[in-house]
Amino acid sequence: MIYWQVFGWTCFLVSLCLCRSPLGWQKMRTEKDYQHLVFASGIILFCLWALKAGISEGLDIHFLGMTVLTLCHGPRIAIWISAIPLTLMVGFGLLPFADVGLYAFTTAVLPALVSYAIFQLSYRYLSHHLFIYIFIAGFLNAAFTIVFHLCTVSTGYWVSGLHGWDTIFDNYLTLALLIWFPEGLLNGMAVTLLAVYRPHWLRTFYDREYLSPDR
């Protein structure tokens, strides 16, 4: 278990070092509205991660919310924002400090990268239409991302020997059949509201392309 904790911390710290965004930090220093958006995003993410449920002890599941966060801020800033809920979870005793690195890598870093990769694929190969953005980049993207997250965590539990595969499959992995739709719906609704009322908050949403009159 110590090996996996060290591995998680290493991956998380390397990700933070690589995910430097000079433009994002400059925007945070100069725009108060963006500062409020960043900290509000972190608090909302904390609420989603703190609300856990599970059948077996230690095999808890919760909403991710990383897809809409990535679409709003990009993967680099999204990974940095995840430090806010992680700090709060440690402060409130919801997450052991030793597990922060592994938890961050599987819950924030990988979902952010997967979400952005799916957005890039949809942007490159599909029509630039508002419905495509909401349904593919928002709803289906979030649904696939949380299933990928559950599979990754399940593999980690099994390889580390913390739980047997039968226990993982029956009490954790099968929950993917229940959580993928609510996760997709939550992110899809958030993306829809932002695209309609606050499109400038979506860093990956381009008005001239998705709202062009000839589409």
UniProtKB/TrEMBL annotation:
The opening ranks of the lineage are:
Bacteria, Pseudomonadati, Pseudomonadota, Gammaproteobacteria, Vibrionales
Q: What name is this protein filed under?
A: Energy-coupling factor ABC transporter permease
Q: Which domain of life is it from?
A: Bacteria
Write out the transmembrane intervals. Answer: 35-56, 77-95, 101-119, 131-160, 172-197
The UniProt keywords, alphabetically, are: Cell membrane, Membrane, Transmembrane, Transmembrane helix, Transport
Cross-referenced Pfam families: CbiM
Where this protein primarily resides, as one coarse class?
membrane
Record InterPro entries: CbiM/NikMN (IPR002751)
| Keyword Membrane on entry | yes
Query: Can the keyword Protease be found in this entry's annotation?
Result: no
Q: Which GO terms describe its cellular component?
A: plasma membrane
Where does this protein reside within or beyond the cell?
Answer: Cell membrane
Bilayer topology reads: Multi-pass membrane protein
Could you give a single Gene Ontology term from the biological process aspect? Answer: transition metal ion transport
